[in-house]
Structures are given as structure tokens and as C-alpha cells.
């Protein structure tokens, strides 16, 4: 029976290391990715104190006056770094759908301590290893963000290994395709919404994610994350204390020849008649394979009767085109 809701999956049996435990988790993940493309994970090995520290420092950053936050503005539309103010992006444009600017502000970082080598610094690398920009005056901010990025990178590798098992591949199949990943950690602040908004304007408009997988640490404020199930219904992604929401992205859907689905999701506005302050914060890690990883149909996902449905594409080219659309509201980059 097809799942019409987002399941909660305990990763403890996988991390216990037994073949039976790994198979149990892989089977549950496979069903979630086939049916709805979303799951909530528990016992994920990420320290609670790290999550709480990053959350606290993030609140401090977004509480700064706008001119202070503007000092670390995103350098350019194709650069996934720095600050972006409320309504300066529209995620729906990544799907060629026009919509008002999203009711959120964000701060983004990519990999740190990038080696001074041609792979990372040469023309082929484009903006994928661009330097991070850091706010000043918030003690421990940079260290905490770098630590969180590293922890999410490790968790992503574990999830990719679970994915490999779920797809009947060797457990380490994806390792050499994500060992120089171009992922992004983005903190999001959704201001409380009490007054009128533009028609169709949401905290985050309906969209799919671009990469292999996304790991979200939301809070439980009103106005949260929803996914669209196979019946076309919007269902809430459940909030679980100390849990993460995980969804697969477009590249994983292409890799699996559409056996797994990259699901439309959105962040809805809180009820306007709610007397409470429903400001919301999320920590989001967008895992993206190495920029030169070729996303071609996996051997376990195609056959003579089910040939590949997508042309091969590199991870980096796909990411750049999608991100530019959302930051330029579909206009693309101007050519001088």
C-alpha cells in the first residue's frame, strides 16, 4: 500500500552495524522514497548540544538590525553564500513557476577549508567552492556553523550508504561521488505573518530540491513544512523532538530513473488569527554530489523494458541553473 503520509524511521538499527539492522532500515527508506520522497529520522547520531548551539547563534544573527545582516549579503546570484533578505528569492521559479518572493530570510555557507588545488579553484569548479562570508560580533558563530556542516556531511554520507543498500547497490557505491561534495548549509528565519500578503505568497512556495537529499531541523512553530502525496494532497511533515526531516531531491530522482520521487513541498504561513508570535526557524542542509559527478541512470534502476528516462547531467551544472532561477526570479544572469 502506498504511503500517503511522511513516515518516521529509526536509524539506530543501521548504526548498530548488523546486516539485519541495515536491511531493515534500507527497506523502510526505500518505501518512503518511492511513495512520498520524505521521511523523518531519529537516532541519527548528531549531538543535541550542537543543534541547540547552532539554533541559538542563528537566532542571534537574525535578530541583528538589517544593516548589520546586509554586511554579509550574498555576493552574486550564482553564489550560494551569505545573507538573503525577506522576499529576495522565490523557490517556485526553480520550477519555471512565477510566484511572489518567499516570506523568509536566510544565511548560507558552503564547504570550508577548501584545498588550494585546481579541482577546487579552477574554472571547472565555478562558484561551488566560493569563500564563505561570516558575520562579526557573534562569538562562536563561525565555529558552530563549520562544525554543523561537518556533522551534516557525515550524516549525509550515512544516508547515501542507506540509499545504496535500498537500491540494491554496494553500500559504498556513492562514496566516490560525494567525497568532494558541493553541499550548502542554510539557516532560515520566517518572520511572523499577521497582515495581508500578496496572493499566493508563502514562507516558501511549492518547489522540489535540486540535489541528492536535504536534511531539515525545523522548530514546532505554527506555519510549517508540508509535502504533496501521490493523491495530490498537502500533508504536514511531522515535527519530532530531536528528529530531522529528510527528503530526496531532483538528482536522486533522476539517478533512480524516477523510481524515487522528488516531492513538491512548501512552507505555509501561520494562521493570521493566531495571537502568538509564530516566527519560525529552520536549519537546512542541502546535500549535493561532487560537481563533476555524472548523474546517469543507476544500473539497478533500468532494464531493456525500462530504459533511462533522463539525459545524463553533472551535479554542478544542475545546481547552478536551478539556484540562479530562484535568485533572479527566472530572469537568469545578465551578460555584460
Automatic annotation (TrEMBL):
<dbReference type="GO" id="GO:0102276">
    <property type="term" value="F:2-oxoglutarate oxygenase/decarboxylase (ethylene-forming) activity"/>
</dbReference>
<dbReference type="Pfam" id="PF14226">
    <property type="entry name" value="DIOX_N"/>
</dbReference>
<dbReference type="Pfam" id="PF03171">
    <property type="entry name" value="2OG-FeII_Oxy"/>
</dbReference>
<dbReference type="GO" id="GO:0009693">
    <property type="term" value="P:ethylene biosynthetic process"/>
</dbReference>
<keyword id="KW-0560">Oxidoreductase</keyword>
<comment type="subunit">
    <text>Monomer.</text>
</comment>
<dbReference type="InterPro" id="IPR026992">
    <property type="entry name" value="DIOX_N"/>
</dbReference>
<keyword id="KW-0266">Ethylene biosynthesis</keyword>
<comment type="similarity">
    <text>Belongs to the iron/ascorbate-dependent oxidoreductase family.</text>
</comment>
<keyword id="KW-0479">Metal-binding</keyword>
<dbReference type="GO" id="GO:0046872">
    <property type="term" value="F:metal ion binding"/>
</dbReference>
<comment type="pathway">
    <text>Alkene biosynthesis; ethylene biosynthesis via 2-oxoglutarate.</text>
</comment>
<dbReference type="InterPro" id="IPR044861">
    <property type="entry name" value="IPNS-like_FE2OG_OXY"/>
</dbReference>
<dbReference type="InterPro" id="IPR027443">
    <property type="entry name" value="IPNS-like_sf"/>
</dbReference>
<dbReference type="InterPro" id="IPR050231">
    <property type="entry name" value="Iron_ascorbate_oxido_reductase"/>
</dbReference>
<protein>
    <recommendedName>
        <fullName>2-oxoglutarate-dependent ethylene/succinate-forming enzyme</fullName>
        <ecNumber>1.13.12.19</ecNumber>
        <ecNumber>1.14.20.7</ecNumber>
    </recommendedName>
</protein>
<feature type="domain" description="Fe2OG dioxygenase">
    <location>
        <begin position="180"/>
        <end position="289"/>
    </location>
</feature>
<keyword id="KW-0408">Iron</keyword>
<dbReference type="InterPro" id="IPR005123">
    <property type="entry name" value="Oxoglu/Fe-dep_dioxygenase_dom"/>
</dbReference>
Amino acid at each position: 500500500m502506498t504511503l500517503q503520509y511522511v513516515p518516521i524511521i529509526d536509524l539506530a538499527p543501521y548504526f548498530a552495524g548488523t546486516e539485519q539492522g541495515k536491511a531493515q532500515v534500507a527497506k523502510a527508506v526505500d518505501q518512503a522514497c518511492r511513495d512520498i520522497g520524505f521521511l523523518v529520522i531519529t537516532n541519527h547520531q548528531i549531538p543535541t548540544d550542537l543543534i541547540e548551539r547552532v539554533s541559538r547563534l542563528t537566532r542571534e544573527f537574525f535578530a541583528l538590525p538589517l544593516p548589520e545582516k546586509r554586511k554579509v549579503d550574498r555576493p552574486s546570484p550564482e553564489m550560494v553564500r551569505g545573507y538573503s533578505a525577506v522576499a529576495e528569492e522565490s523557490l517556485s521559479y526553480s520550477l519555471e513557476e512565477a510566484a511572489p518572493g518567499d516570506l523568509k530570510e536566510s544565511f548560507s555557507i558552503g564547504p570550508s577549508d577548501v584545498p588550494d588545488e585546481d579541482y577546487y579553484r579552477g574554472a571547472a569548479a565555478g562558484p561551488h567552492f566560493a569563500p564563505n562570508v561570516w558575520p562579526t560580533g557573534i562569538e562562536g558563530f563561525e565555529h558552530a556553523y563549520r562544525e554543523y556542516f561537518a556533522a551534516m556531511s557525515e550524516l549525509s554520507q550515512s544516508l547515501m550508504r542507506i540509499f545504496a543498500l535500498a537500491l540494491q547497490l554496494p553500500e559504498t557505491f556513492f562514496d566516490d561521488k560525494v567525497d568532494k561534495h558541493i553541499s550548502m548549509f542554510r539557516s532560515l528565519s520566517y518572520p511572523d505573518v499577521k497582515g495581508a500578503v500578496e496572493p499566493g505568497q508563502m514562507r516558501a512556495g511549492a518547489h522540489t530540491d535540486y540535489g541528492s537529499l536535504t536534511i531539515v531541523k525545523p522548530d514546532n512553530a505554527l506555519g510549517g513544512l508540508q509535502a504533496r502525496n501521490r493523491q495530490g494532497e498537502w500533508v504536514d511533515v511531522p515535527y519530532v523532538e530531536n528528529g530531522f526531516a529528510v527528503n530526496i531531491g531532483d538528482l536522486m530522482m533522476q539517478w533512480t530513473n524516477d523510481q524515487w520521487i522528488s516531492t513538491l513541498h512548501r512552507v505555509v504561513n501561520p494562521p493570521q488569527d493566531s495571537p502568538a508570535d509564530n516566527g519560525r526557524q529552520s536549519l537546512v542542509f542541502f546535500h549535493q554530489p561532487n560537481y563533476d559527478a555524472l548523474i546517469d541512470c543507476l544500473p539497478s534502476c533500468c532494464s531493456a523494458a525500462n530504459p533511462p528516462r533522463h539525459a545524463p547531467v553533472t551535479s554542478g551544472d544542475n545546481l547552478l541553473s536551478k539556484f540562479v532561477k530562484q535568485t533572479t526570479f527566472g530572469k537568469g544572469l545578465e551578460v555584460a
